[in-house]
Amino acid sequence: MKQKTWLRVFCILIWSMAGYAQKNTAPNTVNPPKPAGPAKTSCDCASAIKITVKQTGHYGPTLPPNGFGNVQEIKATGPYDKNAFENEHNSAWYLLTVIQDGNLEFDIAPADSSNDYDFLVYPYKDSATCDEILNHKLRPERSNLSRTNAALKGWTGLSVSSQKEFVGKGINDSYSASLVVKKGEQYLLVLDNVYADGKGHRLYFGYKKEVEIKGVVLNEDSVGVKASVSLFDNEGKTVKKVETDNFGKYGFKADMKTNVTYSLTYTNDSGFTQVKTINTSQLKKSAAFNDIRTVLPRLKKGKKYRMGTINFYGNMAKLLPESEPSVEALSKLMKKNKNMHIMIEGYINGAGGGWNDVKLSEQRAETVFDMLVASGIEKERMSKKGFGSQNMLYPLARDESEMAANRRVEIKVISID
């Protein structure tokens, strides 16, 4: 008994120490969870998989849809029917619950890009909805029966940039128009892979709404200047590009995802590029960002510039997707100023984690260097150096946003004439 008791105490002690070590893991160290199995699919309307459509989220990867289930709910009334599949081949049904007002978008991403996924979206009221679909008494609100687009790797879905609500068979648009939805509404989404022995898919969801953005661009003397203003999403894609007037003022409207960070880049010939980030979670009653004031500092030899959004993943030299527009803006600036030479300075976050690694900061500077070379900037116009954890913006970083700010690259202008 004494030996068993001692052994039990010893095991508890070891478990406790393991728990302590895990709780005190240094920042940026990730203990990845064990991969989960494929998500379920349902081939029948009555047993549709329930999904609450969050502000941004996904479902899958799924098991491959196999057959049409117990009931063939959908069958076209003719060869040109845009409101139904010709037949259900290998279908997957989902019951979507909307949690906010907005424009609902989604992507259907096949695991095998050669698979041909069509889809229909029906409004859902109650359990009788499935019978209404079966008996052709309910029309879908969106459809897409287009042939697979190899350039898009077979992706399809709803998008605010698309105009057609219903897309028929053949070589057509891969995306249909987004759906204006209200909180609490429900919709049935049914996918159909026309190929046998196909693979599963992923679903990506999001909401968008129209947002107004207004501001002014100034020089260091507070005088309005002409400049280009570009809006990028969190994947680095261009959403909108406009020019200011002669007084530096600009304004535009754009469809933007909710609770997502966007980048605004500001460039002209005489000032250093500036980048501002805005997050749509900041929008409360008014769907507008008003009076954004941006100062473009003069280009000066020997001056160091912090672009604000050239940041990296923790413990990696990989640039965050939302930082790519900043590098693109820097490239455009250097192309306009042919005699501009720069030093790219890399930094890391060393707060609390012991990551004082100069090599990592050098690799981060090299990442930006390589991206600029790939964009057409001559190597001879650039140098690079790593500074480790020197000059941290937040020496005692308290959260992820402050640590991310420390994981950065700054630009020093070596010459400009």
Structural class computed from helices and strand pairing: alpha+beta
Give the number of DSSP strands. 22
How many helical stretches? 5
Termini Cα gap: 85 Å
Provide the domain count: 3
The shape is elongated
If you compute it from the alpha carbons, what radius of gyration comes out, rounded to the nearest whole angstrom? 27 Å
Helix content: 10-25%
Q: What does the average pLDDT come to? A: 86
For the sheet with most strands, the description reads:
8 strands, mixed
| N-to-C SSE string, H for helix and E for strand | HEEEEEHEEEEEEEEEEEEEEHEHEHE
Q: Work out the strand percent.
A: 25-35%
| Sequence stretches where pLDDT stays below 50 over 5 or more residues | 1-35
What does this structure look like?
- The structure is a single chain.
- The chain is α+β, with helices and mostly antiparallel strands and 417 residues long.
- It has three domains: 45-199, no CATH class; 207-298, Immunoglobulin-like, CATH 2.60.40.10; 300-417, 60s Ribosomal Protein L30, Chain: A, CATH 3.30.1330.
- Helices cover 16% and strands 33% of the residues.
- The chain has five helices and 22 strands.
- The chain has helices at 2-23, 129-134, 324-336, 358-374, 400-406, and strands at residues 49-53, 56-59, 91-98, 102-110, 117-124, 142-144, 156-159, 166-167, 175-177, 179-181, 186-193, 201-218, 228-232, 238-243, 249-257, 261-267, 274-279, 288-295, 304-305, 341-346, 382-386, 409-415.
- Strands 2, 4, 7, 9, 10, 12, 15 and 18 form an eight-stranded mixed β-sheet that branches.
- The protein starts with a helix and ends with a strand.
